[in-house]
């Protein structure tokens, strides 16, 4: 570890790795930091060595390209895996990144750099509904992470539900891995695979591959359908699937037996680090807060860049392109000679336009609020039912913030990561950028003594 | 179910065991405690503070905090992120998610995060 790097990159997904490598090629001294023990981020999540997988690429499109970047980067830059970043600060042109190393006996580590690239990705966006906290109900990304990172199939009889193109790879992956996928329920219109938006971005092969895989396993894929309730005593045994009208109000319902539900209604970019630094944010096409960046992926704070899902949900290919642009900007801003590459910016514009079209094609419609009952938990951590949120509103809470103060949704362990979107919707507003002074849980002892130089400890 | 192994042509190293509330659970080296539990058919291992609701994996990537366990006496670890080690003794139940000595700080606005607790 060096006392001062030119650029620290947080996140070893497609955006962070591409950004770190590009900056390193441009002559910067780079350090890449990720909480996970292996590189890849969400999309290129790697299996542990212990599996000796001879064909790991079966789980991801384009793994070879990522692996080449990673191997090259490792030889050129410092890589700190297993380092959770819990805070970042910036003073006098230097960024301080505070990490905890290790997954249980944690040691504090501090990294300093002149510039910072934030590529921390996103997490699933679940909606609450009756029974969503029953064991066996997982987020779609969670089911994918179990498979890609652990070779564990999330269940035997699995229902996949929610909205967005991400449901397809999740369902196809589960089916290929041996699960009996009882159905894929897309709450928005099923566009028909031939007209599926993935095709528009030249990802025809990928979309058709998922479609063919679902067809081969005889998995029904239904548009305008959603899981509106999950049932079981202590664990999931069946779900209520509803046919929806265009506002997502149930028209008719039936029961589907399953031991597992994998569901998601899009993604939420993880913004606690850019917010800590004071980076400006904006509402994306789906209302989600994302970091505001210029064409060079510069945030509003000098020397701080953002790429990948942090700037708007757009998938792995866009993430990689953004990483490369950000790496070039960081090098140029530190005086390295970086010839312009307009082709790259045009590529980003095209992919970003497509990502926006996807967000618009798969919105969350307000009818989901009608799926909730008085006793449905809105906040899983603090176990706040819908009735308590409504009571807070009757007491005069006019926005999500005052609902939170009165009824405590979002005040528990996850700090609103799971319920923040839903609470904002129930309060009739767009979700606000998260204000979390601590991005990862930390022992109080480490919090009390955060100033340790990089060469100590 | 060996299909996921066939899919990636895995030749896994020999399993080891961890003990979960005294019962053995097999692990492939590198798997997380949460994945090993889920893979062994154990779907819940904690109950909530207020409603005593069972909880296990939900987000799978460390953001929901539903999967908390105590490992070798260290409380409040996220099972989905914590790689299992041979001989780990995992204890579950309501207390796994509560703050004890060595509790963790959430944010400053009154979470479970144990402002009242001394750090280690
Ligand atoms: C659970 C999940 C599974 C997904 N699976 C797929 C899939 O199978 N196919 C698909 O097309 N898309 C998938 N996605 C969508 C995914 O967001 C994009 O495809 C793509 O991975 C985004 O790339 P990225 O580089 O922006 O971020 P990511 O790939 O998400 O990488 C972000 C990295 O930052 C690290 N990080 C975040 N916060 C911190 C911190 N505080 N300290 C240290 N490190 C940190 C994370 O550990 C992660 O490795 C998934 C998303 C989620 C949430
Ligand atoms: S399952 Fe969400 S934190 Fe572990």
Notes on the structure:
The complex is a heterodimer of chains A (457) and B (120). Chain A is α/β, with parallel strands linked by helices and 457 residues long. Chain A is 30% helix and 24% strand. Chain A has helices spanning 14-25, 63-76, 140-150, 167-176, 197-200, 204-216, 272-277, 315-333, 342-361, 386-394, 400-407, 420-426, 444-448, and strands spanning 5-10, 30-33, 78-80, 83-91, 94-101, 107-118, 122-124, 137-139, 157-162, 180-186, 221-223, 225-231, 238-244, 250-257, 260-264, 267-269, 281-283, 289-291, 304-306, 377-379, 384-385, 442-443. In chain A, the strands form six sheets. In chain A, strands 1, 2, 3, 4, 5, 6 and 19 form a seven-stranded mixed sheet that branches. In chain A, helix 1 runs parallel beside helix 8 (315-333), helix 3 (140-150) crosses helix 4 and helix 8 packs antiparallel against helix 9 (342-361). Chain B is α+β, with helices and mostly antiparallel strands. Chain B has a domain at 16-91: Ubiquitin-like (UB roll) (Roll), CATH 3.10.20. Chain B has helices spanning 3-7, 33-39, and strands at residues 16-20, 23-27, 46-47, 54-55, 68-71, 74-78, 89-91, 104-105. In chain B, the strands form two sheets. Chain B has a five-stranded mixed sheet, covered by helices on one side. Chain B is globular. Classes of the chains: A alpha/beta (457), B alpha+beta (120). Chains A and B meet through strand 8, helix 3, strand 22 and helix 13 of A and helix 1, helix 2, strand 4, strand 6 and strand 8 of B. Strand 22 (442-443) of chain A pairs antiparallel with strand 8 (104-105) of chain B, so a sheet runs across the interface. FE2/S2 (inorganic) cluster is lined by residues 34, 57-60, 62-67, 78-80 of chain B. Flavin-adenine dinucleotide binds next to helix 1, strand 4, strand 7, helix 3 and helix 8 of chain A.
